[in-house]
Amino acid sequence: MLESVHLVKTFGDVTAVRDVSLGIKPGEVVGLIGASGSGKSTLLNLLAGLLDLTSGTVTLNNERVKGPAEQLVAGHPHIKLVHQEYQLMPNVSLRENIAYALRFYEKRYQTYRVEQLIQLCRLEAIQHRLPRQASGGEKQRTAIARAIAEKPAVLLLDEPFSHLDLPNRELIRGMLLDLVRNEKTACLFVTHDATDALSISSRIGILQDGQLVQMGVPMEIYRRPYNAYTAQMTGPVNLIRAKYLPLMGIIHAYPPNALACVRPEQIRLTDRGRFGGTVRNIFFKGAFMEVEVEINRFVNLTFLASSTEKIKVGQLVGLELSPESVHWMRGSA
Ligand code: ADP
Ligand code: MG
């Protein structure tokens, strides 16, 4: 188990990581979601022992992970970090990049393991190319293959999906899930885009200004976000001030400026709606549409409609929202 307790990192007067405590077990995928500058890369570097911490501790199976100031070679043999820029050696092939990670092993095992990794990471066809002749997805897969070559206990990934198209993201998602299941690797990745995190993580955490503001199972965080930032980082959302909710038939005892979170899929289109408005925008998303409705001068609501629904901009629609689907947030920001 990889664990951090009250982890802090400051650069001059910037606090990049504030009091982060978390644990990742073998066979678990954890995704941390945070905006740019929220401390994601710094946190990963601290967990990997690649950066000296300001205070707190990082341990792997109860043994402290040392920072670069405490040892000759930075890093930990059982914790591997895949950087956002892949950091492959530019002048040798993808295959040789992977083999390099196994250079201290006997030749026969090295060849066997490289073959296995190339298959696992679907690199058969392009293994002899140089990094500059490979696509982003291929380089990402090579970087992952190299990182898992020695079967690390912990795999850390910095924005592994951010530069990839959908087929490559699905491929990497599948690879990570296989790895975690088959090798019981503990896997932690950071991202600014919740889509992949919600679908493959057993738990997700939200990083805001270096702080881990909420951690839990994806559905719980999606439905019951701690604050507006968490709500917005995890998907489309309607943030509604308490004073406007009676308009929608929701009677409550919250102060006028309290913030409620209503996910678009909780609002239903109906002829017998308690309230309604004028359709202002329709965003086609494939299987469904996001429909923006102006309820009054102060409130716009987004709801989801099936793409088969016939809705036009300018049309009046009736809506329905059940009181149970309104989540009141505790945090303000
Ligand atoms: P993220 O990966 O979420 O975008 P980072 O961890 O890169 O965020 O950065 C978090 C904060 O720490 C930012 O304000 C950034 O400017 C600052 N920071 C990161 N690395 C350094 C550094 N080496 N020196 C000074 N400030 C840094
Ligand atoms: Mg980063």
UniProtKB/TrEMBL annotation:
It comes from the Bacteria. Residues 2-234 form the ABC transporter domain. One of its GO terms (molecular function) is transmembrane transporter activity. Pfam families: ABC_tran, TOBE_2. The keyword Membrane does not apply. One of its GO terms (cellular component) is ATP-binding cassette (ABC) transporter complex. The keyword DNA damage does not apply. Keywords: ATP-binding, Nucleotide-binding, Transport. This is Iron(III) transport system ATP-binding protein.
